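Lecture 7 notes: from sequence to structure.

We start with a single chain of 601 residues. Read the sequence below before looking at the structure.
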Amino acid sequence: MKAYITRYGWLALVAVVLTLPAKAGASFDALFDEADAIRTSKPEQFFKILKQLEALEEASTPDQRMKIRLMRAHGFLLEGRAEAAIRDLEEIRTGPADVAVRFRAGAMLANTYAGNRKFEQGLSTLNEMLPLVTEVKDRAARHHGLLAAGILYNRVGEFRLGGEYANQVLSDEPSGRSQCIAGNLVVEALQGEGKTPAEEKIYGAIQNCEREGETLLAAFSRTYLAKKWHAEGKTSNAINLLEKHLPSVRATGYPVLIAEYLSMLAEYQMKLGNVESAERHAKDAVAQGKSIAGSLPLVVAYRVLYEIANLRGEPAVALEQYKKYAEADKAYLNEIKTRELAYQLVRQQIVQKTQQIDLLDQENQVLQLQRKVDQQSAQNTRLIVILLILLIASIGYWAFKIKRVQLSLKKMAETDALTGICNRHHFTIRAERALAECARNGEQASLIMFDLDHFKNINDRFGHGVGDWALKEVAEASKGFCRRIDVLGRLGGEEFAILMYGCDLRAASRVAEDCRVRLAQIETRETGHVFAITGSFGVTSSQHSGYSLAKLLSHADKQLYRAKHNGRNRVCVYDAEQENVRAASNVLEMPQRDRTEHLGA
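Now the structure, written as tokens:
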């Protein structure tokens, strides 16, 4: 247990604390209650009880076996066997266990991932676990899941969310241990947001943790109080508080916590000019070794040692300490960026799940209000309620019908009826809007125009029905090369265009070539006829043609017709220099008189 908490800090400690209470038969309950009471204070005794539970596994019910597996995963965490715990927790979370057990497994798994710096997996697990909260009737299990969310969000720097989940627990009559953890999270979140928590709130968190025997969490809470005093100019008070409790912190043997106290003391003593004391504490913090690698305490300690060497006029020592400080700071910033990146990768999922939870809460409130209204309603008011419901339903029905008509008309106005893509008018509107945005953001944009080769022959030989089929197939094939931000439209007849947002000329040329190849691969046998579908492509970009849609269309159109002239079924790319050379060649090919008039014009 000590090795695991030493490596991952108080997050790991709290993850270990979040275990399940028992709910099974009489002897099963007794063993679980005993294990629950000593799970953090007496790990050796806990493992003895775990063996007794495992002895009952064969005769247990399926739900009881899942609970034993969950307790076993907790044991793996105490032993520092995170991978084994992750494997079991994943199986429990996705298995047929009771919802409270799956919810608890998800919470423990999310924090285990975070403890192993797998923040993306942790956040994803949390995102899948949180919607179950409304189904969990066990208050303690519900609190443990919400606290897991608060811990992980604080860990990745999303302190607002972390504080919200912790406050949800505090507002729901938590047990002493849950109240201790939640109080810590709230204070940590407030300081993380740059706010100043009230001293009463910090003292309350310390007292709750001390009352529950959670000395480590109480020690972390004191660091929040010291930071508050230091920010308020009460640096001496902060030093006295940290010095008073440093011996008990050293006695825990947890390097992360010890380094936190020592680095803060080094920083505060340096601020007051106590150089020798600051140096002693900074060196003690650095001595905690690999256990605090990539942490803020190590950064602070090396910075203090650098400042001391600089103050003493020891350039060689100062340079060496500055290098260590720079390396530690880089490692710490990389750790922060890793957490932030993981949060950004799953942010959209988390936002959606949070909205779902809020919606469920709102629906629950509406149901409660409706129940009160129903209870208070008398017989003579029921008819009015029914009439109102009918009226609302009628309004909703007609509103729905009108909305559908509006959407249908809007689609007809914007969509090409045959191919289902943008018509020329809507393509122009969307393309101009996208070009304006590219111009504002300094992004490139490219335009691909293509025209089907010998399309008139297809209509003449096989009929317009086959021609329509070919147009639809071409539109469908072209969609596969467009991103959501790109604009695909039929400009008229057999002519199509694609505006590619944030795409340079080279990339657009590759897309055009891939599209050309795809069109040539369209299988036409289902029409009853065999014929080839090919297209001639013209490509230009804003780098050469600017952000004017008219100019982009004009340049792409010229390249399209150059492709036609060069033999069709090919891609021609706009090149300003070649165009200038071509224009000059045209002038030289004119008769002398026409050339003079052209140059004069």
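The beta strands are 445-452, 487-492, 495-501, 535-541, 571-573. Keep this in mind for problem set 3.
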